[in-house]
Sequence to fold (279 residues):
Amino acid sequence: MTQTLVPATPSAGLSRPTPGLRRVFFAACRSEWTKLRTVRSTIWALISVVVCVVGVGTLLIALTVSRWDHRPFLEAAGFDPLLYSFAGVNLAQLAVGVLGVLVMTSEYATGAVKLTFGATPQRRLVLAAKVTTFSAVVAVVALVSCVLTFLICQGMLASKHAGLSITDPGVARAVAGGALHLVLIGAVAVGVGAIFRRTAGAIAVLFGVLLILPGLVSLLPSPWNDTIVKFLPSSAAQAMSAVIHFPQLLGPGAGLAVICGYTALTLGIAAFVLVRRDA
Fold:
């Protein structure tokens, strides 16, 4: 008896092959970009970043130039044209931090996170997509703001023969460091939002670390205060924008390593708790 072989045909009940992680990641990034650009608070937060970086830096340099010949000796001796120009970055990091927290907590507040995890069950991949998309947006805005601030402030300082050129040693690195400062603080903020899931709590923790903790550390007896404050997130990030070495700051490379360590630790904890807890 001869047996007839029938070619196998796909059944309607069979599931389709799971798409590659790369395709899922890019799809998640597109989804996060759509969420980010359609929220009005994103535009206002990014505008405030530009205003803080450019406005505060320009104002501080203008005041410095106006009293150039009457500055105290210590102020004149420790003057760093770039660190002064990028003073607004310390204020802008708060706006970036709030927006970074909202990238995660807003979905928990509305319950949309269940739909997000339903569409993309790989929660760590969702976190990576959020961090990547948000960091890319912040990087563009921060770099444009820092370059614009550099051009304006160094143009004003040129009248006092104190301006720097982008080709001077360490200047391009410091300008990029100002932008990277905001990018890494933003990534930390996304991680904090994922860990705490509540907007108020996450912002309170972030502001406590960036604003209150340095003040508390400064109350410690010397030399503990000067030693510890160097390794705090805001101080480590600020060190990347310095051209002159200050005793109270780490070197640019060490500052980058410390703030990257904080970022990796925060996102590592966020990835861990994200898969351990229910949405």
